[in-house]
Amino acid sequence: MNRYLFIPFFTCLLFGVQAQAQSLTGFVKENADAQLKLENKFDSHLQSKNIDDLIKRLSARPHHVGSPYGKVNAEYIRDLFKSWGYDTQIETFQVLFPTPKVRMLELLGAQKFVAKLEEPALKEDATSGQKSEQLPVYNCWSPDGDVTGELVFVNYGVPADYEELDKLGIDVKGKIVIAKYGGSWRGIKPKVAQEHGAIGCIIYSDPEGDGYFQGDVYPKGAYKNEHGVQRGSVLDMPIYPGDPTTPGYGSTVDAKRIDRKDAANLLKIPVIPISYADAKPLLLALGGPVAPERWRGALPLTYHVGPSTDKVHLKLEFNWDFKPAYDVIAKLKGSEYPDEWVIRGNHHDAWVNGASDPDSGLAAELEEARSVAELVKAGWKPKRTIVYCAWDAEEPSLMGSTEWAEHHADELSEKAVVYINTDGSGRGFLYAEGSHTLETLVNEVARDVIDPQTKVSVLERRKSAEAAHAGSAKARKEILNRKSIAIGAMGSGSDYTPFIQHLGIASLDFGYGGESDGGEYHSIYDSYDHYRRFKDPNFQYGVTLAQTTGRTTLRLADADVLPFDFKTFQKTVAVYASEVTALIDNLRESTEVENQMIRENRYTQAADPTKKFVVPTPKASVPYLNFADLQNALSQLEKNVNTFSDLYSSNPKPNTNLVRLNQLLYKSERLLISEKGLPRRPWYRHTIYAPGFYTGYGVKTLPGVREAIEQRNFTEAQEQLAIVTQTLLSFSKQVEAVNTILMMR
Fold first, then answer.
1. What percent of the chain clears pLDDT 90, i.e. is strictly above it?
2. Hey, how many other C-beta atoms are within 10 angstroms of the C-beta on 262?
3. CA angle in degrees (0–180, nearest 5) for 43-526-690
4. How far from 714 is each of 373, 457, 623, 688, 719, CA to CA, in Å?
5. Over the chain, what is the mean pLDDT?
6. What is the DSSP letter of 351?
7. SS3 of 449, please?
8. pTM (2 decimals)?
9. Other C-beta atoms within 10 Å of 101: how many?
10. Domains of the chain and any CATH numbers
């Protein structure tokens, strides 16, 4: 029978680690041996000094989309790729990019206060004084607005916080809200405020989560000082990312655009970010109930919910201009399968100087590409085409990658094997998320990359980190005894989004962190000086990231049979199905308990009879949903996957049509796409992973079903169950087709 397997072999690992039996999924033995030798050569070319120089060069000036240095960087990156032998071009899109021209935030009344809305230059930070080139403090995609109203503190500003406000009898209608960063993606805060009738939104970084409560502040330490501010997009990206005026198609020069007022992902209320120095006088002006304990931060004041006695005035105006976005695309043509593309990307635009985000990830990608070019010079050629991408306009709303993916959708649907993403990195532990068909590949790569601090594999170090945070000795032992780590599911927030969520291209996202925390994010202090001191002082983890993504890229480029593992995917989806089943059961039980408490008038506050409290309205009972078809589909998938696993591990590669086999493997993710897309946001078409409607970046698995249950739309939940069932049946048939080829002689 013609099959392929995990083939053990012996090799000497780097750093003098004792040789041990290993395997490379998708490679026959002789090719696996050659592959690991190739990867050792690849590692030998990587230099931390190059990553140091690249980060310093790329972050020397502010380089937001449309800026002069943004163009300089794009051309510099293009020229590097060309010098290394890649077929390289800059593909330009015209994207909408608002920048501020009027910013005013003031507290009126007797305690009048005007917010500074500015980050001061520091003598310890060489690039922090480039004021003429810096984007000022603002939230991109806020509308123009001039509003005055009472202020209300809404904690993180997520839906659950408004339920708490309802119980306290606090209404935000006609008021301006102030929310802490954290708890969800920033764009969710004005979105939910708008839904509750607020007229404006202020977001601040509380020192409890990002400031002196965590450690010494910059420049003494890494954390956010009192004037630091997090810029960022507030586009409603759970609706769709990219240029709001070209939903679903590329923002080319001649593209037909919708009117800005018709863009469903643009908010209606003005929003601005501020420092905790600017937030303090506003919070001191609040009256009303004392905030719940879990809402309170670390500022030296008593946190009240509000409303304020004195009113707040917020005025914002923007230049709504179109700017060129420069995507750098570099290709290394495959020698055997040129129409199978392994795509690797990181963005190059930043809110300001961006040493950490994105230049640390971009520098690792560039050093990876240079090392691959050195292999080519020595005579190696990849079997599949490798495409390196440096995206522009990621920060505002993933525009560079989204517009490119939309513009080339048909070609990518045919040719894209996997998209591999990074977005910055630092010292610490491996972070990986992506399509669960690729989890085995990730674990094999992590097994073979050595952590520069501990000299154990990054897989073992990641397991140790998980064990250190386990809740019991038993849990720690179980973690350490595992042979693998689980990768996370993908929501949104970086350039993998259009590939997996819109086109159904299997994707991965890598980074390192956990020992490089700090408060520089999206501020003028995301600088080379900050990065060198606190993020990755010796730039060792830049090399480690390049080793990780480079091995992944090389293995996908050269595998005899692409290393997709359906078993891990099937087990993961079965867990998701169990979760949504439990979700509705728990919702039914909690609803019954809550309604019983209301009927028995048990919602009292005897401990504080002076505090206003509103008794909730009883909720409709929760019906039973029919999960039978989904369970049957999962059973059929499990059967086919088990057959696949048996065939997969029996014999070397089949000598049948490898092209057809590999196409079935890499196009399997396409079968998880629903052409109709998710309810109220059809751009998102993946039925297994999506960003949450109210979590932003955070993932929702089986999103159509899960969110319908959470929103108590049970008719829609049953409809979405039917859709995800059909996609899993289609996926199962694809696995069956793979099995047919593997059984051929």
1. 88
2. 11
3. 75
4. 54, 46, 7, 19, 9
5. 93
6. S
7. coil
8. 0.94
9. 11
10. 98-318 (3.50.30.30), 438-489 (no CATH), 567-742 (1.20.930.40)
Task: For residues 232 and 246, give the distance between their C-alpha atoms in angstroms, rounded to a whole number.
Answer: 21
Element housing 369 (H / E): helix 361-377
d(CA 342, CA 384): 7
pLDDT band at residue 611 under the 50/70/90 scheme: low
Residues 6+ apart with CB under 8 A from 445: 548, 551, 552, 555
Are 70 and 64 in contact by the 8 Å Cβ rule? The answer is yes
Task: List pLDDT tens digits, range 60-69.
Answer: 999 999 999 9
The DSSP output letter for 507 is: E
The answer on pLDDT for 230 being more than 80 is yes
- Whole-angstrom Cα distance, residue 506 to residue 670? 8
| The two three-digit tokens of residue 582, written as one number | 């439990």
**Distance between the two ends of the chain, CA-based, in angstroms?**
5
Kind and range of the H or E run holding 377: helix 361-377
Q: How confident is the model at residue 15 (pLDDT cuts 50, 70, 90)?
A: very low
Answer yes or no: is pLDDT of 564 > 80.
Answer: yes
Residue 112 CA: distances (Å) to CA of 137, 157, 285, 310: 21, 25, 10, 9
Distances from the Cα of 677 to the Cα of 135, 262, 549, 703, angstroms: 36, 20, 30, 11
Buried b (16+ CB within 10 A) or exposed e, 17-49: eeeeebbbbbbbeebbbebbebbeebbebbbbe
| Single-letter amino acid code for the residue at 467 | A
Bigger pLDDT: 285 or 605? 285
Q: For residues 113-118, give the mean pLDDT.
A: 98
Cis peptide before 292 (omega within 30 of 0): no
